[in-house]
Amino acid sequence: MATVGEEDVSVLGDRISNLNVSATENNEEMARKSNDNDVDLMKSCEPRLWGFETRELYKLALNFYKEKEGKAVHLSYEDKLKLVAFTQQVMHGKCTAENAPPLGVLDMIGKDRRLAWQNLGDISKEQAMEGFIVLLDKLCPLFRTVVEAQKRNFEEKQRLRREEEANKLEEEKKLKKLEEERKKQEEEKLKEETQRRQIQNALNQQTYYQFKVYAEQQYPGNPEQQGVLIRQLQEQHYHQYMQQLHQNQLVIEDQNEEEDEEEEKETNNIQLENMMCKTDGDNDDDNAKNDTNENMNDDDSDEIEDWPPISPAEMWTREGVEEFKQTIRRETGDAVIKVDHGEIVTVRVPTHEDGTCLFWEFATDGYDIGFGVYFEWSKPETNQVSVYISETEEDEDEEEYEPREDLESGSVNGNIRPKRKSTPPPISVIIPVYRRDSQEEIYAGSHQYPGEGVYLLKFDNSYSLWRSKTLYYRVYYTRQGFIKNN
């Protein structure tokens, strides 16, 4: 909605305030000439006031003036004459001898009002309404507050009306859709009923004479009972026919599915044979290359052990971080760890001979932390859970050398042989390390034992340069036959 520009309103108000309608002036022609510029300004402005139509806003302004004048609005005599002049111009138009009421000799107020009315000249009723509104707004700032409240009320009614229309339109669409669905269902039922009658009539024509002979044998000389029996037999025959038809259709569908499966198997077999042929050809070439390079690959001749596949882990979150922390503090203090900035804490959890599944839960104070799960394929030497702290991943992967005595090797040139490098056990990634918002929710998860080994639960704070994290965690395993309920 458009509003009046502040400059136009202020200029119009200033020009209106310059209207001189004093009762002491006798030269009406001079007053009329002095106000020609005011009339021209009002004709040229034609302000669109505060988003209202002029007539609606004029009615609102007139009612406000009548109710508040002398109470919340206190105007001078000159201002009242100007407002009355605008109302006369709206009601009767230009002041003429025909539409002006007669005045008494001593009616000074009437003469002042007549003069103020004449000073408006021949402005239109629309312009007179606008002049009344602008002047009242200038004289009484409370009027604008009332208008804004009315505008909000009007806009709210408009909004409710639009919502009601939209809801009504949506309801009509739903009803129309339901009606279309109902008609469609009725048409389908009618179609099914028509087909049923056609099938039943065709069956009745085929079996009528057979059933009639049977009915005459059952009820000789009784046509009424014969008709009842014939109808019963026809109805039973129809239902049996439809059941048989349905069973035949199911058999046909099963046969089609079997044929599709057989075709798919044949296609897969053909593709497998093609791959086998291609592999055999590649193997011949590889065997020739291997014979040539056999001596070069003696150091790499150890076979890589094919580890069993690992099932994916399950992870979920739940609420109640503070209660969980209190429980961990109360149960054991060893499960509360401070992970300094730049550190990685690895919790080693060996598989238990009586367990089948590992469970874990953890939360932190204030900030998130990285978390991941790995599995080390090594035989656990103990069932105890241990914690290791390292600066970075590289520190964890540092090569470790163990001194071993070799009586046969002796020394080389009087020097002791170097410590021999130990082969680290293979490690499988179950859950990669990602940052978890464990300060907001409890992160929990489980994993079925892939075999015998050690789980590595990594809590990574290496990305943090300044902040340390307080970790609360709990790990446990389940026995055979345990069923987890998420």
What does this structure look like?
- There is one protein chain.
- With 486 residues, the protein is α+β, with helices and mostly antiparallel strands.
- It has 11 helices and 12 strands.
- The strands form 3 sheets. The protein has a 5-stranded antiparallel beta sheet with strand order 1-10-4-12-2, covered by helices on one side. A 5-stranded antiparallel beta sheet has the order 6-3-11-5-9.
- The chain is flat, with a radius of gyration of 50 Å.
- The two termini are 57 Å apart.
- Mean pLDDT is 77; it is low at 1-9, 17-47, 292-306, 399-413 and 482-486.
- Residues 255-265, 296-305, 391-405 have a biased composition (Acidic residues).
- Keywords: Acetylation, Coiled coil.
Residues in helix, %: 40-55%
Question: How would you describe the oligomerization state of the chains in this entry?
Answer: single chain
Q: Taking all residues together, what is the mean pLDDT?
A: 77
Task: Sketch the major β-sheet.
Answer: 5 strands, antiparallel
Number of helices: 11
Q: How much beta, percentage-wise?
A: 15-25%
- In the predicted model, the low-confidence regions spanning at least 5 consecutive residues are 1-9, 17-47, 292-306, 399-413, 482-486
Overall radius of gyration:
50 Å
Write down the secondary-structure element order.
HHHHHHHHHEHEEEEEHEEEEEE
The secondary-structure class comes to alpha+beta
Q: Tell the overall outline.
A: flat
Organism: Cardiocondyla obscurior
Keywords: Acetylation, Coiled coil
InterPro entries: Acyl-CoA-binding_protein, Acyl-CoA-binding_sf, FERM/acyl-CoA-bd_prot_sf, GOLD_dom, GOLD_dom_sf, Golgi-PI4KB_interaction
Pfam families: ACBP, GOLD_2
